[in-house]
Amino acid sequence: MRKNSIKNTRINSEVMRDLSNIIRGEIKDPRIAPLTCVTGVEVAPDLKTCKAYISVLGDEEVREKTMEGLRSAEGFIRRQLASDLNLRNTPQITFIADTSTEYGMRMDGIINEICEDTQ
Predict the structure, then answer these.
(1) Nearest-CA neighbor of 19 among 104, 108, 109, 94?
(2) Contact between 71 and 95 (Cβ < 8 Å)
(3) How does pLDDT run across 58-92, given as a tens digit for each residue?
(4) Chain mean position to CA 63
(5) Considering the entire predicted model, what is its pTM?
(6) Pairing relationship of beta strands 92-97 and 36-43 according to DSSP bridges
(7) All domains of the chain, ordered by start, with CATH?
């Protein structure tokens, strides 16, 4: 299976949807911020590993606590994925903090400042 095959794209979207549902509705860890979003998932073609990109609205401390809570709940999340998905292997999940939203908001603020200065 190639990395960008239709099957791999479908598996990525299924894992992303189920992972979002698990984080939103089934994990009761108070460290995980309520505004946590799964922005992307990359499952390896052999279905052994998975990178999950997580965006958290809040400051650095909130992001670190959320990532810590997700890492500690990794076994539970993997078990839930195994029961929800019908895959040959349940991938080992690696959570990666996604800061692209914050970067975009910061760049938008800079552009707005420049536009106001020119007027």
Answers:
(1) 94
(2) yes
(3) 888 999 999 999 999 999 999 999 998 888 888 99
(4) 12
(5) 0.82
(6) unpaired
(7) 6-118 (3.30.300.20)
